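Lab notes, practical 5.
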Amino acid sequence: MIAQDRSDADRPRPTLSSADALALIVGLVVGVGLYKTPSLVAANTGSGALFLLAWLLGGVVSLMGALCYAELATAYPHVGGDYHYLSRAFGREIAFLFSWARMTVIQTGSIAMLAFVFGDYASRILSLGPYGSPLMAACAVAALTGLHACGVRQGKWTQNLLTAAKVVGIALVLGVGFLAASRPLPEAAAPAAQKPAFGMAMIFILLCYGGWNEAAYISAELRDNRRSMRRVLFWSIGLITLIYLLANTAYLSGLGMAALSGSEVVAADLMEKGLPGSGSGFISLLIAVSVLGAANATIFTGARSCYALGQDFPPFAFLGRWHGRSQTPLPALLAQGALSLALVALGSLTRKGFETMVDYTAPVFWFFFLLSGLSLFVLRAREPEVPRPFQTPLYPLIPLLFCATCVYMLHSSLAYTGMGAVVGVVVLMAGAPLLLFSRLGKSEEMARASLER
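Output from the prediction step:
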C-alpha cells in the first residue's frame, strides 16, 4: 500500500482548476505582441476597418486550431500534450524530434525571447549599465524557474497574480486610449515607404495569438479535464480576441491610423498622449509585468514536454522524474532553465537578442504545429474506437483550414527570417544522432535481455 501511494505521488495529479488554466493561457498569449506589433499590422493594412478586421480574423483562425486541439486534448489527456499526439500518430521518432525541438529551440527560445523583452523594459525603470538588459533577462529566467521548482502551487498563484495585474494594466491602457481620442493632435504623415500587405499583417497577428495550444500540456493536471479543457480553450480564445480588439481599437482611436502606422513604441506613444509626462515609466512597468506572466506560463508548460521526453527515451531518463513533494518535473525544469540561460547568453552576444530568438524559433514551431494538426486526421482513421468527448465540428473542413494556415506560416517564417532560422533548423537536426543513439541503446538492452533468457 505504501509503495502504491509513493507511486501515485510521483506522477502528475489533477491539481489545476479551470480558472488556473484560463489564467495560464491568457497570461502566456497576451503579452509582448500587444505592445510591439500593432504598428506593423497597421502599416500593412492601410485602413482602420481592415486593421481591426485582421485582428478579428486572427481570433477566428485561433478558434479553428482550438477546435482541433479540444478533440485531441479530451480524447488523449496527457502531460506531454503535442508530444503524445505526435507519438501516437507518427511514431516515436517524430515525437522524439518534437520534444528535442521544444527543449532546445521552441520553449527555451521563447523563454529567452520573453526574458530579453523584460530586460529591455525593466532597464528603463532601473538602469544597470550597458549589460543591464541581458542581466535582468537572466535573473528573470532563474527566478521564475526557481519559483516553479518550489512547487506547482507557487507557480500557479504567481501566474494568477501576474495575469490579474496584466488585465488591470490593459484596462488602464484602454481607458487612456479612449481618453486620448478626445484630445486630437495634428494628423501625422503616413510612412512613405510602406506598401500595405494583408498577408504580412496576418503573420504578425498570428504570432501574437500563438501560445493558446499550450493548454494541451496541462490536460493531465486539469480537474475533470474532459469537460474543463473545452471551456478553457474556448474561453481563453474568446477573452484573448476581445482583449486584442479592445486594445487595438484604443490605439486606433487615440493615435489615428497614420500615427499608429509610424509608431515604434505604440503603447508608450498612446500613454504619453493621454497622460503627458507620466506615460513612459508606467507603460514600461506594465510591459515588464506582462512579459513576466508570459514567461512564467511558458516555463510551466515547457517543462512538461521535457518530462515526457525523459519518460520515453533512456538517454534523457533523468528528465522523466516527477518530484512528489513539489508536484513538479524538477529535473526537467532545471534543464530547461539552464538551456534558456544559454540562449540568453547567445542573444546578448549577437546584440539582437529578441530578433535573434524570433528567427531561431519560428520555422521549427510552425513545422510541428502543422504535424499536430495532421495528427487529428491520422488518429481519427487509425483509432476510431477511442472515445472522443468532443469532436471537431465541420470535420474535415476546419482541420484542413487550420493545416493550410500552418503551411502558410511555415513558408513565411522561412522566407522572412535570417540566419537565426538556419541555426534553429540545425539544432533541430542535431537531435537525429541522439535519436539513433537512443535506438542503438535500446537494441543492445534487448539483446542482453535475450541472452540472459
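Observations recorded by the TA: The chain has one domain: 14-441. The mean pLDDT is 78.
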